[in-house]
């Protein structure tokens, strides 16, 4: 009896573990091996411990790497800027409209990512009413375009990843004890001061979760740059995609993927260490 | 407060309230949940604005002012300590907003934490403290600002009985030391009687009686007050002339209170349970007024025995007999025995019936027994 009972957690873990091994660990191993091979699709690939795959591709595509992190960073910033007030409004001011508004935030997921981005292509097209309006108010020069610019790609990323920012922020705000805000006001803090001293620090876990959920997928994204950007807006995701599917240079593609993963991982570790290990883990544990 | 009314939609939480609280007073608002006491407190704090009327602090009308501009501080029922700050930062929060110099903040925070006995925990976070300690931090965080009025919203509600008793004494002590006006909200009549200089008993958005604890207890103004504070022994009576009443199933009793009523008017005679004596009819003192009844139950409470005596179909009387000696207790009349209840005329008090229907039948207070208050 007791042995069987002790085994229960392992049984519960088993399906997830098997899934991870089959579809994460094994593919990762093959990819890692692939990234160190040389050869071509026709002649086959041999493991030659070709570490130059890494050095060469990084130096060749450093522009796309930097651009990917820049775009993802700016998009994440805008997501936070738009998402925080939105989440705040839904959590505190929406009243009976709360569920409807949450649904509206998630609603775009009912169409596929690709279709939504292609729709944006139409919206930002040279002949679209949106662009001609922007031209009339002189936000865009008469001979300028919106499509195939950095702005278009960043706008697309911001749009596509906004729900990933809003949902964790909403959860954090909704959990916030309203009486703490009253206590702040009671202790002579104005609404602004109460926000900076109490609301913001206490919703930090949500902000950090939102930033991670937005930044990581945005940095590896290639769909937005493909449809909304031109050749000068290619992100590292586009390079990896074309290496795999167009040029069929598998080892380089694998090496680039691993590099991207490593950079994000290192950045993440630093971020958690400095920005919010406490907010991310500590607070959570303490409030339990 | 002058003519303050607060409405939430159609619901009137506080109605036409006039209240004058003296400087340095320990003032308690007592009443069942939903009677408007917390709403009144929140209007003084500035979390709610009155629909009509004035809230004057030191002669200035603060109605309409936001909470952060008012010279009041609040101790919340749930404490509402900032979980991301240490105790020091929590207590220093208000002073920092008021731009008090850093050195002074440090000094005052240290003094305040010392007063509540939490100096060693200054660097801790609130969730590392017990409920009683958190309550003391909440008190320190409010008091350190030296408000004109300190508002306390059932601050001891979440604590267990023993801790509550200890903190009641501490709170009263602190209030005497600092001399700040305390406005205390509670539904616990015993707490109110122990700590207050004056008590306002509230019901359905109105003040039923506002007086010192002795008066509220011994001379309740309405049946609601009589029922809410202590055990209600309400005997229906009819006023006969200007100095006599006729108690139901009982004698004519002389009382100066009758002068306040007109002849033939119905009212209630109140005698507190500990002021009644119980004896067999043949041994009853003939020089005291009394009524006959049948013992229904007898409950041993340690320091006293509580007896329920039925006088008429719908009049039940509660008697508290002190357990002075084991022998005397053995000889108390048992269930079913015919007894006579007697009292001294000066221990009887007349009350008018409360306007509200719920008043006399409020179920909670009858279960509570007030001890040590006479």
Q: In percent, how helical is the residue content of chain B? A: 10-25%
Provide mean pLDDT of chain A, rounded.
Answer: 89
Order of helices and strands of chain A: HEEHHHHHHHHHHHH
Regions of chain B with pLDDT < 50 over 5+ consecutive residues? Answer: 356-374
- Quaternary structure state of the chains depicted: heterodimer
For the largest interface, the chains and their residue counts are: A-B, 20 and 26 residues
Q: What radius of gyration of chain B results from the CA coordinates? A: 24 Å
Sheet/helix structural class of chain A:
mainly alpha
Globally, the shape of chain A reads globular
Taking the sheet with the most strands of chain A, its summary is: 2 strands, antiparallel
The largest sheet of chain B is: 6 strands, mixed
User: Would you tell me the structural class of the helices and strands of chain B?
Assistant: alpha+beta
Please estimate the helix content of chain A. Answer: over 70%
List how many beta strands of chain A DSSP finds: 2
Distance between the termini of chain B: 31 Å
**Strand sequence of the main sheet of chain B, in spatial order?**
7-8-9-3-10-11
Radius of gyration of chain A (CA) equals: 23 Å
Q: Approximately what portion of the residues of chain B adopt beta-strand conformation? A: 25-35%
Task: Tell me the number of helical segments of chain A per DSSP (H or I, 4 or more residues long).
Answer: 13
Distance between the termini of chain A: 32 Å
């Amino acid at each position: 009896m007791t042995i069987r009972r002790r085994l229960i957690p392992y049984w519960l873990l088993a399906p997830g573990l098997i899934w991870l091994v089959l579809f994460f660990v094994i593919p990762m191993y093959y990819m890692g091996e692939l990234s160190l091979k040389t050869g071509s699709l026709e002649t086959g690939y041999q493991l030659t411990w070709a570490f130059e795959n890494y050095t060469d591709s990084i130096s060749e595509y450093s522009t796309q790497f930097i651009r990917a992190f820049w775009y993802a960073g700016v998009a994440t910033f805008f997501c936070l800027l738009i998402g925080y007030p939105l989440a705040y409004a839904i959590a505190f001011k929406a009243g009976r409209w709360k569920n409807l508004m949450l649904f509206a935030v998630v609603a775009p997921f009912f169409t596929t990512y690709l279709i939504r981005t292609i729709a944006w292509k139409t919206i930002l097209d040279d002949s679209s009413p949106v662009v001609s309006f922007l031209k009339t108010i002189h936000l865009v020069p008469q001979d300028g375009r919106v499509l195939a610019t950095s702005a278009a790609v960043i706008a697309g990323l911001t749009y596509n990843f906004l729900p990933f920012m809003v949902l964790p922020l909403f959860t954090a705000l909704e959990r916030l004890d309203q009486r703490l805000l009253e206590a702040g006001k009671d202790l002579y803090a104005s609404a602004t001061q109460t926000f900076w001293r109490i609301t913001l620090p206490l919703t930090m876990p949500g902000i950090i979760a939102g930033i991670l959920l937005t930044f990581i997928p945005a940095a590896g994204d290639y769909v937005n740059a493909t449809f909304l950007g031109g050749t000068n807006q290619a992100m590292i995701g586009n390079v990896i995609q074309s290496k795999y599917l167009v040029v069929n240079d598998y080892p380089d593609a694998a090496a680039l993927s691993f590099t991207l993963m490593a950079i994000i991982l290192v950045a993440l570790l630093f971020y958690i260490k400095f920005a919010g290990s406490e907010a991310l883990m500590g607070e959570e544990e303490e409030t339990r | 407060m002058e003519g303050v009314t607060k409405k939430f939609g159609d619901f009137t939480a506080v109605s036409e309230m006039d209240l004058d609280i003296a400087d340095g007073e320990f003032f308690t608002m007592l009443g069942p949940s939903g009677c408007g006491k917390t709403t009144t407190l929140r209007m003084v704090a500035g979390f709610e604005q009155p629909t009509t009327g004035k809230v004057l602090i030191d002669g200035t009308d603060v109605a309409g002012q936001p909470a952060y501009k008012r010279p009041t501080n609040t101790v919340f029922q749930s404490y509402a300590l900032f979980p991301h700050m240490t105790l020091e930062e929590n207590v220093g929060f208000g002073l920092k907003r008021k731009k008090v110099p850093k050195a002074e903040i440090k000094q005052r925070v240290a003094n305040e934490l010392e007063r509540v006995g939490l100096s060693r925990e200054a660097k801790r976070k609130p969730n590392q403290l017990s409920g009683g300690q958190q309550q003391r931090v909440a008190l320190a965080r409010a008091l350190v600002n030296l408000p004109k009025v300190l508002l306390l919203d059932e601050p001891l509600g979440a604590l267990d009985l023993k801790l509550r008793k200890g903190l009641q004494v501490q709170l009263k002590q602190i209030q005497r030391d600092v001399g700040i006006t305390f406005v205390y909200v509670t539904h616990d009549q015993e707490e109110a009687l122990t700590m207050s200089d004056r008590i306002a008993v509230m019901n359905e958005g109105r003040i039923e009686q506002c007086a010192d604890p002795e008066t509220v207890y011994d001379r309740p103004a309405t049946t609601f007050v009589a029922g809410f504070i202590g055990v209600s022994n309400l005997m229906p009576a009819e006023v006969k002339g200007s100095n006599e009443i006729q108690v139901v199933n009982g004698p004519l009793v002389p009382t100066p209170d009758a002068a306040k009523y007109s002849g033939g008017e119905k009212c209630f005679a109140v005698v507190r349970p500990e002021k009644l004596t119980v004896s067999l009819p043949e041994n009853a003192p003939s020089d005291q007024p009394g009524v006959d009844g049948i013992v229904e139950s007898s409950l041993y409470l340690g320091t006293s025995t509580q007896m329920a005596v039925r006088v008429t179909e719908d009049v039940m009387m509660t008697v508290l007999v002190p357990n002075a000696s084991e022998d005397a207790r053995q000889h108390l009349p048992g269930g079913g025995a015919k007894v006579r209840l007697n009292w001294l005329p000066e221990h009887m008090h007349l009350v008018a019936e409360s306007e509200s229907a719920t008043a006399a039948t409020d179920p909670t207070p009858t279960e509570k027994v007030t001890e040590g208050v006479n």
